[in-house]
Design brief:
0% strand, 76% helix, mainly alpha, single chain, Growth Hormone, Chain: A
Amino acid sequence: MVKNVGFYGAVRYTALFVGVILAASCFLVRARLPRKTWNRETPWLDVTLFKQKQFALYTLGSFFVMWGLWGPFDFISTMAQARGFSPTLSLYLISIINATSIPGRVLPPYLADKIGHFNVLTICAMLTGGSMLVLWLPFNYHPSHAGIIIFGLVYGFVSGAVVSLLMPCVAKSGSIDTLGQRFGTYQMVISISCLTGLPIMGSILSRQGNDNFAGLQIFASVAALLGGCLIAWSTYLLGSSRGTRRV
């Protein structure tokens, strides 16, 4: 596609493809519960939910995790090529990440049904930040084919688990009566981190001469680790309020 219509054209065609698929999916969704009358006075964005400490900490933690989570997806291929890797292998690194994210989106959520969704999300969020700090950052100084592939395998698995568990944990953080408001308020905050994370990392890379990736790697890993700690705190509060560790 890039060869035929250029990069910008390929992005537009991809957006059209995704849009058509999402539009089709809207006609395939079936409600699990009886439909309720729409209350026009119900706010889509309810900031009063942040008065609940557990939900506020969880949302803030998710913000930081998503702030740094997309770094490897966007910069790993450029980094590999800058370190002398072939363009083919560099692009396949994204495929490796996406491939291992498939079991990451299936197996940890299955385990979460047994030991608690917040517990598994906390672990995977910490591993996401830890993998960037321990496995990705050293590649900036000691390029290795095996090392970057191992990072792609590990990171794809744990980041896939994070992405798949974020919304179920929002649903489990409160009653079903406020589910819509929680989703809307939570997504409004997360959208800001997803929108700003990559431009910030790109600016860091630019300030370091576009050849030193350490700054954006540290930013991404520290943000994810900080987010994991905040999610762990919210998990503790939720477990304490419910009198169980299985949350």
